[in-house]
Amino acid sequence: MLPPEFADSSQAAPRPKSFPGKVITVTNQKGGVGKTTTAVNLAAALAMAGHQTLVVDIDPQGNATSGLGLKGQSATGGTIYQALTSDAPDGKDFILQTSTENLSVVPATRDLTGAEIELISLTDRERRLRTFLGPLRARFRFIVVDCPPSLGLLTLNALVAADSVLIPLHCEYFALEGLADLVATLRRVRVSLNPTLDIEGVLLTMSDERTNLGQQVARDVREFFKKKVYRTVIPRNVRLAEAPSHGLPAVAYDARSRGAEAYFALAREVLEQNPGPHAEMQGHTQQHRESKR
């Protein structure tokens, strides 16, 4: 059963009003659940709605970076590796603009593989990302962090830096396997390192409603997480798989595909939960769809 402090968001400590931007960490220690696809396409959909959005890639595989067309590239200050291991890094020196308007990224390369070990000897090793992102909150409405498929020190940094966690779940038999460990980790982080941490939502991915198994998994997940589960369900869709090879989010690669439409719907839900200025999701997505015709 979901711990009551996560079932009721009102039990989380209030976010400091000095932090205008929201940090959403996308994580699940299981691989292949659509984590990077979700981080990239949610961020792009929010950016297309007119919100300044930043993707922070802290996965050594760097898939979010390559999925945005910036594989192997570094900003003037370097990548997220240098940002985490440097003293007092200036956030603006680590940001690259993507081909999508309003969408930027702090890139990752294979160098990040060694960061897990190097962070151990550094001061405030769990808070390095939080410190780095602090000044950037004033510049970005949303900061979306893509994590590696593990619960190591990089993911811990992402959880300490986050206001909330978005959990993608593959609609398969083992969907709930390991979730107890993840929820327990969130609970420990909330108690000892980040009292404002909350669950933003749980997203069902790679769904095939034609199968009894997929329907059963969806029912089980909704029973466990209750209202934390998004109404939107991400279907299996070839465009979602094709888009990264073109260096584009699916919402920009083919805005009329079922996968892209689902991520636009997810972005609308996120904006409903986080009301702010000029949240005109419908108008922007409609305009983009028409431009693709």
In short:
The protein is an alpha/beta fold and 293 residues long. The chain has helices spanning 4-7, 35-48, 63-67, 80-85, 115-120, 128-133, 153-161, 179-192, 212-225, 238-242, 250-253, 258-273, 281-292, and strands at residues 22-26, 53-57, 96-97, 103-106, 142-146, 164-170, 198-207, 229-235. The model is unreliable at 282-287 and 289-293 (pLDDT under 50).
Helix/strand layout:
Layout: H1 4-7, E1 22-26, H2 35-48, E2 53-57, H3 63-67, H4 80-85, E3 96-97, E4 103-106, H5 115-120, H6 128-133, E5 142-146, H7 153-161, E6 164-170, H8 179-192, E7 198-207, H9 212-225, E8 229-235, H10 238-242, H11 250-253, H12 258-273, H13 281-292
Parallel strand pairs: 1-5, 1-6, 2-4, 2-5, 6-7, 7-8
Antiparallel strand pairs: 3-4
Core attributes:
293 residues; alpha/beta; Rossmann fold; eight-stranded mixed sheet; 39% helix
Would you kindly provide a written description of the structure presented here, covering whatever features stand out?
- The chain is an alpha/beta fold.
- It has a single domain, classed as Rossmann fold (3-Layer(aba) Sandwich), CATH 3.40.50.
- It has an eight-stranded mixed β-sheet, with helices on both faces.
- A hairpin with a 5-residue loop joins strand 3 and strand 4.
- It is globular, with a radius of gyration of 18 Å.
- The C terminus is likely disordered.
